[in-house]
UniProtKB/TrEMBL annotation:
Residues 364-432 form the Argininosuccinate lyase C-terminal domain. GO terms for cellular component: cytosol. It catalyses: 2-(N(omega)-L-arginino)succinate = fumarate + L-arginine. This is Argininosuccinate lyase. Residues 7-301 form the Fumarate lyase N-terminal domain. Belongs to the lyase 1 family. Argininosuccinate lyase subfamily. In the N-terminal section; belongs to the lyase 1 family. Argininosuccinate lyase subfamily. It comes from Pelotomaculum schinkii. InterPro entries: Arg_succ_lyase_C, Argininosuccinate_lyase, Fumarase/histidase_N, Fumarate_lyase_CS, Fumarate_lyase_fam, Fumarate_lyase_N, L-Aspartase-like. NCBIfam families: argH (TIGR00838). Keywords: Amino-acid biosynthesis, Arginine biosynthesis, Cytoplasm, Lyase.
Amino acid sequence: MTKLWGGRFQKETDHLVEDFHSSISFDQRLYQYDIKGSIAHARMLGRCGIITEEEAGAIVRGLEEVLAEIKAGQVEFSVEAEDIHMNVEQLLTAKIGDLGKKLHTARSRNDQVALDIRMYLKDEIDQVSGLLRQLQEALLDLAERHLGALMPGYTHLQRAQPVTLAHHLLAYCQMFGRDEGRLADCRRRADVMPLGAGALAGTTFPLDRQYVAEQLGFAAITQNSLDAVSDRDFAVEFTAAASLVMVHLSRFCEEIILWASAEFAFIELDDAFSTGSSMMPQKKNPDVAELIRGKSGRVFGNLQALLTMLKGLPLAYNKDMQEDKEALFDAVDTVKKCLLVFRPMLETMRVKEDNMQAAASKGFTNATDLADYLVRRGLPFREAHEVAGKLVFHCLQQKITLDQLSLDDYSKFSTLVEEGVYDAISLKRCVDARRVPGGPALEAVREAIAEARQRLAASK
Ligand code: ARG
């Protein structure tokens, strides 16, 4: 087959090279964007008198037919045509004849591919953002169902202070809210139209770049032709933002895996979101959560691949940049798949509130509150800490909890303790006394939920 760029060549491309440098196997997913971009370009060429309006009309109609045929699965792409851009042009020329050869006037695949990826990424960002919003809404609903569910809060995975499940869930809501913000930020920088940059140095034809941008729904046009064809920051930014989504999902999954163990027994995953063992009949495994945790590595790897691909490239376009697509596509696919399955897994899990509360009541999670009680009775905090620590040690030896100590026992450690101590160290009190904004008290959590709901409504 003759190459679209075959003019200066005397020899056929080696078949090994043909296969090696072709990207059609993966960049075909850009076909809709490529064709929409070409339609806008052709219309602009007609409008600016670079081709006639009739020619532009015929090219547009041809492209629309090619689009419909690809959509209907009637097209077999050719490896020899290298990539989606040249495949589409070839299909167009096969359909409308030599006129198809005018489409590429004042354009290069370098600005074309930059355009396609930006269009693709904007759409995908909208989808990922939608999934993130649904997840946050699910978290808020779940938090409302478990507003007063006491559970131990941990540091170093050691029981630390009591919180509620609602407060714990809201922590993740914050993370996914920031993820949404990062994606919106990335989207703003992807929303810039590069066509007109040509191969690297613009074009001698008087293009109306603004018109192309408007047709394709871009907010602005790129300001430097060299940058326009060599910029892949938006791919890096997306993959970095996606990496953080995966970090957040993975941390949450780690907790779900722990919580589902017999040792914690805080939750039970729904049968529909767990799997069995081929050997051990009793097993019910949190495979979905484990797989999400495992898949985080793919996305981090993609980020690393993109950064490494870019860091040594001189301006402007270099073929290395073809490697951007598989990394970006895989990051998009992975983060979407994980978000999609994570939410229903979360929504269907059964929460064992009694076990959470029982765990919170062990482990002396109210020891800080005992110290705070002594502080309110006049003891400097450092001394109160010491007294409470001794009381904890005493309880450990007696195998009892702080609220099981009698006032008589307390008096051996401090004369400041009175009847009010039992209320001060009751778990519910420990939580409800933490009324600071952002704290776990019922009221603070209710406010946090209302605030998150408002934020979600505003970001729609
Ligand atoms: N398939 C190429 C890519 O994905 C398109 C741009 C090719 N440009 C070129 N001058 N070879 O990057």
